[in-house]
Amino acid sequence: MNSQNTHELIVSGIHLELTPSLKTFVREKTERLFRHEERIVRIRVELECDPKEDVGTRFKAKGHIAIYGPDMNASVESDECHKAVSMLVDKLDRMLNRRHQLQRAKRHHLHPATLDASLPEPV
């Protein structure tokens, strides 16, 4: 990662040996998220392989984004590890985009406060 960034990426494997190429693939994919949102503190990606599962759901990718405000979590299942990582990053990107749009809508659509009670007369 870049030395000027204070972002942190944690990649871990559960029942799966992480190869250097897989770590590089995850790092390249998640860079898009760091560029997209500057307030991300940490992204943790957990890759899991369960050989007892069906072929279509053998690989699971879980992502946890620590961001200023409520943290974000996502999980996807796929038949291949690289595809699961791509789907996870796409899902997290959509979640960040939706969160950004909601914050913009709240910031630009202020509603005046209405008081039901009458105010006392100034003396």
Q: What amount of the residues lies in strands?
A: 25-35%
Which spans have pLDDT < 50 for at least 5 consecutive residues?
none
Q: In order across it, which strands form the biggest sheet? A: 1-2-3-4
What value does the Rg take, in angstroms?
A: 21 Å
Shape: elongated
Counting helices, strands and paired strands, the structural category is alpha+beta
Terminus-to-terminus distance: 65 Å
Describe this structure in words.
The protein has 123 residues and is α+β, with helices and mostly antiparallel strands. It has one domain (8-99): Ribosome hibernation promotion factor-like (Double Stranded RNA Binding Domain). It is 37% helix and 27% strand. It contains two helices and four strands; from the N terminus they run E-H-E-E-E-H. The chain has a four-stranded mixed β-sheet with strand order 1-2-3-4, covered by helices on one side. Strand 1, helix 1 (20-36) and strand 2 (40-49) form a beta-alpha-beta unit. The mean pLDDT is 84.
What is this structure's SSE topology?
Elements: E1 8-14, H1 20-36, E2 40-49, E3 59-67, E4 72-78, H2 81-108
Helix pairs in contact: 1-2
Give the gist of this structure.
With 123 residues, this protein is α+β, with helices and mostly antiparallel strands. It has helices at residues 20-36, 81-108, and strands at 8-14, 40-49, 59-67, 72-78.
